[in-house]
Specification:
This is Mono-ADP ribosylhydrolase 1. By secondary structure, this protein is α/β, with parallel strands linked by helices. It folds into two domains: 2-124, no CATH class; 163-386, Leucine Aminopeptidase, subunit E, domain 1 (3-Layer(aba) Sandwich), CATH 3.40.220. The protein is built from 15 helices and eight strands.
Length: 392
């Protein structure tokens, strides 16, 4: 705790008076508790043995010295700034040193850090620069709520999960379904046409290269939107092998995490090795998401760009891998989004989704009846078996 608070305090140079006021108020409330616990002549202050839940904290002289030193440094820095009355500075800094040294009122210390000192740290946060400490920045960003994190997005026009339509199983597939109906997977699949860097969800997947240091296509777009600290964290991961997945913070992205996976190169053709590797990309990415309690994940079309994997074949590996993972872990994920850019890719997913996520008999019957009613009214001009729509 001492190191954590010292680290946070070291980031403060000149706090605004409003931030100091918030911190002062927190420790004034904590000071009331201290006054009740430690009154002049009390056993706690005279050294008389007494059974107390805070006795061990009082005896921690070394810890108190560390906090006092930190508080003194902060006091000196704030005094030089001259932004607040001297009495006010002495008041809240004294309570800070006293409370921290005693180890009492941890909740008050944490609350003050969150409302005051972390506010000052946030003012110094610069996601456009590679000079910052990516570990500290990552810890800070991951501690924020979605609402608080919005102030750090480096992109505009973010798309929240609630605005991404859910795909509903529909009848009319051109071939029999490859999997049985599983109602637990309803409301868990989406097909989204747009920019994956705009999605305000738990995790987006990056179709990366083995270096993880950025590249072209979606890889480059994600790195540009996240900012230079993403590359610094990726450098610490020492690359990634084909089919594997590694997770980082999203930094300036609306997504909390980025999961980097390396797809197979299939320019020489698709064999069993390439198929297994592509499935591993999806499976390991979902595993990384669930291990980090990410409940919404978006995938680009992995390997179908310059890596040369035919999209009409890649879609089946993607859908099969996701279906099998959800069958086993449906309780750990709320949404899996297939984020496509080309209209042809969207059509491939809409055509093949019923093969992997088939509708129930009642749902199929309702869909067929509804279609026939519309056709009789003359509102439909195409053949039903070739129709696939996205419904919310």
């Amino acid at each position: 705790m001492a190191l954590l608070i010292s680290a946070r305090v070291s980031n403060v140079r000149a706090l605004p008076c409003s931030a100091l006021s918030r911190v002062r108020a927190d420790f004034q409330r904590a000071g009331v508790k201290f006054r009740h616990l430690f009154t002049p002549g009390s056993p706690q202050l005279t050294g008389t043995h007494v059974t107390s839940p805070i006795r061990s904290a009082v005896n921690a002289a070394g810890r108190g010295a560390k906090f006092s030193t930190t508080a003194a440094a902060l006091h000196k820095s704030t005094r030089a700034n001259g932004s607040c009355p001297p009495g006010g500075r002495r008041g809240w800094l004294g309570k800070f040193a006293f409370g921290a040294a005693l180890g009492v009122g941890t909740a008050a210390v944490v609350q003050a850090l969150h409302t005051g000192l972390i506010t000052a740290m946030a003012l110094k946060m610069n996601l456009d620069s590679a000079e910052g400490d990516w570990k500290e920045t990552k810890d800070f960003l991951l501690s924020l709520s979605v609402k608080d994190r919005r102030g750090y997005y480096r992109t505009s026009g973010s798309v929240p999960l609630d605005d991404i339509p859910v795909w509903t199983p529909t009848a009319g597939a051109s071939e029999p379904s490859r999997y049985q109906r599983n109602e637990k997977l309803d409301q868990k699949i989406s097909v989204y046409s747009g920019d994956i860097t705009k999605l305000e969800i738990d995790a987006i997947v990056n179709a990366a290269n083995k270096s993880l240091l950025g590249g072209g296509g979606v890889d480059g777009a994600i790195h540009r939107a996240a900012g230079p600290l993403l590359k610094k964290e990726c450098a610490s991961l020492h690359g990634c092998e084909t089919g594997e997945a590694k997770i980082t913070c999203g930094y300036g992205l609306p997504a909390k995490y980025v999961i980097h996976t390396v797809g197979p190169i299939a320019q020489g053709g698709v064999g069993e090795e390439e198929r297994r590797a592509l499935r591993s990309c999806y499976r390991n990415s979902l595993l990384a998401a669930t291990e980090n309690t990410a409940r919404s994940v978006a995938f680009p079309c992995i390997s179908t760009g310059i890596y040369g994997y035919p999209p009409e074949q890649a879609v089946h590996e993607a859908l099969a891998a996701v279906r099998e993972f959800l069958d086993a872990h449906h309780d750990k994920l709320d949404r899996v989004i297939f984020c496509v850019f080309l209209p042809t890719d969207k059509e491939l997913y809409l055509q093949n989704l019923p093969l992997y996520f088939p509708p129930g008999e009642l749902s199929a019957q309702k869909t067929q009846t509804h279609f026939l009613q519309r056709q009789q009214l003359g509102s439909v001009k195409f053949n039903y078996p070739n129709t696939h729509t996205q419904r919310s």
